Amino acid sequence: MKVERIGRFGTNLSRKLRPAMYEILEKYVEIRTNSGKMYDWDDIAMYVRNEFEEDTSPRLYKHIIVDGGQDFSPEMIRSLVAAIPKDGSLSFFGDVAQQIYGQRMSWRSAGLEIPQQWFFKENYRNTKQIAQLGLAISRMPFFHDIPDLLLH
C-alpha cells in the first residue's frame, strides 16, 4: 500500500483515505496482538475508563491531585474522573511551558465543565535564587534563538 504521509495535525481525513487508514489500523492491531501486547500507550486510558464504568464498587479515592499533567489527553482525564465518586473532586496542575507534545486540551473535550480555573503568576516550584540562576543561564548566548523560551 502506498499512501502519502502528511500527518494529522490540522488536516481532516478525507472519505477516500478512510479505507486506507482503517486498513493500516487493522494491521497495526494485528501486529500488536501477535506480539502479545493488549494495549498501547494511547489505549490504556480508554481501557481504564471502561473498567471503571463497569465497576460498581465504591471508589477508594475522594480526591485526586495531578501535578504535571500538561500533556494529558482528554481520555486520560476522563479515566481519572471515572476513578472518583460522583461527589469527588480532581485538582489538576499543568505548566504549558513544559509541554512535550504541544497538544492543547480543553476541559470540554474531556467532558468536564470547570466552574473556575486559577492561573499562577508566581513561581511556586523553587526558591528565588534557583529561579534567578535559571534566568541567568537562559540569557546565555546558547539559548538566543529558542522561540519557546520565555524570559521574564
Hey, roughly how much beta strand do the residues contain?
A: 5-15%
Largest sheet: 2 strands, parallel
Into how many domains do the coordinates divide? 2
Supply the helix-strand structural class.
mainly alpha
Catalogue the unreliable spans.
Answer: none
Please list the strands of the largest sheet in the order they lie side by side.
1-2
User: What's the helix-strand series?
Assistant: HHEHEH
Span of the ends, CA to CA: 51 Å
Give the oligomeric state of the chains in this entry, treating copies of one chain as homo and distinct chains as hetero: single chain
**Spatial shape:** extended
Radius of gyration: 21 Å
The pLDDT mean sits at 82
What is the helix tally? 4
Number of strands: 2
Helical residues, percent? 25-40%
What this model shows, in words?
By secondary structure, this protein is mainly alpha-helical. It has 2 domains: 1-38; 39-143, no CATH class. The protein is 34% helix and 7% strand. It is built from 4 helices and 2 strands, in the order ααβαβα. The protein has helices at 18-34, 41-54, 74-82, 128-138; strands at 63-67, 89-93. Strands 1-2 form a two-stranded parallel ribbon. Helix 3 links the parallel strand 1 (63-67) and strand 2 (89-93). Helix 2 packs parallel to helix 3. It is extended and about 55 Å long. The mean pLDDT is 82. One of its GO terms (cellular component) is cytosol. It comes from Desulfosarcina ovata subsp. sediminis. Residues 16-106 form the UvrD-like helicase ATP-binding domain. One of its GO terms (biological process) is recombinational repair.
